[in-house]
Specification:
The chain has 273 residues and is of the alpha/beta class. It has helices at 46-54, 61-80, 102-116, 118-124, 138-153, 162-174, 181-188, 211-224, 241-244, 246-253; strands at 12-18, 28-34, 40-42, 128-132, 157-161, 193-199, 229-233, 258-262. The strands form two sheets. Strands 5-6-7-4-8 form a five-stranded parallel sheet, sandwiched between helices. The mean pLDDT is 91.
Amino acid sequence: MTVSKFSPAPRLAETRMHSCGVAGHIQHQRSLVEQFDGSWKPSVCPACRWQALNNTPKDQDEYRNALAEDMAEDLNAALLATGITPRFRNCSFATYLTDGDRAKQRALNICRGYAEGFEQHAKDGRALMLLGEIGCGKTHLACAILQHIVRHEGKTGLIVTAESITQAVTDSFRSNAGPSKSELIAELTGVDLLVIDEVGFHTPKPGKDFTPSLLHEVIDARYQRVLPSVLVSNQTKDSLHEFIGPRAVDRLRENGGLLAPFTWVSARAGGAV
């Protein structure tokens, strides 16, 4: 599969032919490249970049600047590939306000600890569940975890909603042009950390709802490969099994799976985050 269904690549705008003016360098396609922070950055001449990285002494600024630019492009692509939407790209542990509330501070500490200890959690395939009412900052902290492991651990991550997984698989049944169900699940198991958001937001349809079995399939596929997952839901730990199945809940709890409870009033209903 050459095109990702879930992980977006940087968008390009105003693509046109451009010459850098250096003798021997042919014209190249110059584009404005989407940046994770919402800005757009012009691409550089590939010949100039290659020259700086391969034919310039490593103690010179030209080489160091080109290397830094190369690393910045890779990081930008990795951050965009997480699927974090513009609304949540400024979310970090530092921007999560607890206002001295002990329950909020506890949730923040659990999520920060999971991110900072990700190397061991990844080795053990340890999951994390963020459970509580809407508007309490669960997605904020899930995105903060993703950004941390991409920025500081050099890992890959992805956030998808439960509905988007179901819709993607449904679309695969209707068309032979896109990725198959097995390719979609392979993509979801191909990242170091998968965050499944908005679990339990849909209304189950007895006898017709395949979302629980599908989510179980994704969670189990990652479990079998000892890959960690983060699940975000407005359900309680006792009702969660209705939306992902009891076996999937067991997979998430196994091997010391962590739970961050969000027990306070929603910020959208007058509470403070």
